[in-house]
Amino acid sequence: MQHFMNALVLISVILASPPVFAATYYIDFLAGHDEADGLTRATAWKTIPGTQKNNGVWADSLHADWGAHTVDSSHKVPPATVFKLRPGTTYDVSLGGVIWINNNFYTDTATWNNPIRFEVDPVWGTGPVVFDGTGLDLTTLIGILLIQNNGVQFDGNVPGGIEIRNSPRSGIHVKEKNGTGYPVLQSSFRNLKFFNNGTSYLTDTAGAGDGQLNVRHADGFTADHLECDGNHNFINGILLGDGHKAVINAKVTDSVAYSHQGDLVTNDAGIGFKALNGQVTFLRNRSYNNLKGFDLGEGHGDNRDMMYKLIDNTADGNVWGINLNSTADIAYTGKSNYFLINNLVYKNSGTGSNIYAGPFNLYAVHNVYADNGDTAVDGGNFRVTPDGTRDETQINVYLYNNIFYKPHALKYNWNLQVGYIGDGSPGRDTNFNLYSDYNAWVQNNTEPFAFWSFNAAPQFTYAYGVNGPGHAGGAWFAQEDEPGIGIGHSHCDAH
Fold first, then answer.
1. Contact 257, 245 (CB under 8 A)
2. Dihedral angle at the C-alpha atoms of 53, 55, 59, 64, nearest 10 degrees?
3. Rounded CA gap, 229 and 196, in Å?
């Protein structure tokens, strides 16, 4: 009898504290009530679990529970949960502060196939779901949405269906898993528009380490159909990784970034797509009207390998189009491989591509470079250079089946600056190898095809013709023995 009574007590306790099971919940920022059960559009919640007060005290929950279906540290949102967001509604500071999706309220075992999903409900209304950060109290580098949980998905269902705007810092900030230091696994963002975030950044230096979408540490990440309008703020569009964290197994597709402001001197903000220490594929994206279109590389941290694949992208109307770099630190032992395939790089006022700081292998195939370099002194379509005084490492460049078309007047199709600047010691030279075949070089009629600058014995390997690109007779480069002292310019390849 006593065992029977104990069993009844146990059952009563379980019934009194029901766990949260995977379900579909509805969120209506305009007319919802957190005292409701959230299970229908008519009984929608007003806020998302994990919403914090706008007072800088992130441990304070705006609500202790969510109606009949409690969500708290003992009743966490499980994988396979779907949150339906009502179109045409806005979340702003009147409803709270940062929405913090971490293991305080959400289990951390969700995956791509079994996610925790936030999506716009297309049959519930019209217009985007807006997250507006105007007046948001951000006491650290976070955004309107702070995500530290595995398997989180945001989908606007149509392009721009979710809009993240007017944050003093990030729009969405993805950090490592809460309290662990491990990367967030298998998150995705689709059909989002970012507008005018980073409003508190008044200089390039202040905004250099942030992005409208800022993913600091992730393994398995996808973003597609994103629009990032910087509104001329000092911030980057999409930022992946940082100096000591990485975003790997990642893919960014069919997205656009524009109007991000940067400073020509410090030039670390104002980048449409920026990635550090990463392993990322960029497919069918466009970056325009930024300081830099794409800026990818920087091998710091734990010497991890870097791998960037840029396929079918467009960089136009920026100052620099596509920048790729490894690191100036000669202690770096990681491997860096970059693939540029089928990209269009044109009308960037400084340089089409600035490739610098080995060690790396660059494979450029089927790209078009045209009319770049109308403002930079040493600009043009393509530029390879070491970085500062420490770059003594190997650079291998493979150019196949590209079109280099008329860099802007007085510029070069190809500009190579090699050596330890100010030091003629041969041991300081960059070990540079160029392999080039089947390219089309269309040049201005009065300028040399290429410009080589070095001040010690170079180590070059040519695999294209005897003396030039497809031309057995005549030198195809203009050489300079010391910076600023030209010793011979030879024009060729005006076809």
1. no
2. -30
3. 7
Dihedral sign of CA atoms 241, 145, 141, 237 in order: positive
Q: Which residue, 154, 133, 242, is CA-closest to 197?
A: 133
Q: Check if the beta carbon of residue 68 is closer than 8 Å to that of residue 37.
A: yes
127 touches 46 (CB < 8 A): no
Provide the residue type at 47 as one letter.
Answer: T
Contact at 8 Å (CB) between 158 and 124? no
Is residue 197 within 8 Å of 212, Cβ to Cβ? yes
CB 261 within 8 A of CB 241: no
Q: What is the pLDDT of residues 184-242, one digit of tens each?
A: 999 999 999 999 999 999 999 999 999 999 999 999 999 999 999 999 999 999 999 98
Angle at 220 between CA 214 and CA 224, to 5 degrees: 60
N-terminal to C-terminal alpha carbon distance within the chain: 99
Determine contact, residues 145/63, Cβ cutoff 8 Å. no
Q: What is the per-residue pLDDT across 435-485, written as a single tens digit (0 to 9) for each? A: 777 777 776 655 556 666 554 444 444 334 444 454 444 445 544 443 433
287 and 296 Cβ atoms separated by less than 8 Å: no
Are 322 and 383 spatial neighbours (Cβ–Cβ below 8 Å)? Answer: no
Residues 6+ apart with CB under 8 A from 487: 479, 480, 481
pTM for this model (two decimals): 0.88
**Using H for helix, E for strand and C for coil, what is the string for the chain?**
CHHHHHHHHHHHHHHHCCCCCCCEEEECCCCCCCCCCCCCCCCCECCCCCEECCCCCCCCECCCCCCCCCCECCECECCCCEEEECCCCEECCCCCCCEEECCCCECCCCCCCCCEEEEECCCCCCCCEEEECCCCCCCCCCEEEEECCCCEEEECCCCCCEEEECCCCEEEEECCCCCCCCCEEEEEEEEEEEECCCCCCCCHHHHCCCEEEEECCEEEEEEEEEEEEEEEECCEEEEECCCCCCEEEEEEECCEEEEECCCCCCCCCCEEEEEECCEEEEECCEEECCCEEEEEECCCCCCCCEEEEEECCEEECCCEEEEEECCCCCCCCCCEEEEEECCEEECCCCEEEEEECCCEEEEEECCEEECCCCCCCCCEEEEEECCCCCCCCCEEEEEECCEEECCCCCCEEEEEECCCCCCCCHHHCCEEEEEEECCEEECCCCCCCEEEECCCCCECCCCCCCCCCCCCCCCCCEEEEECCEEEECCCCCEC
In this prediction, residues 360-380 reach a mean pLDDT of 86
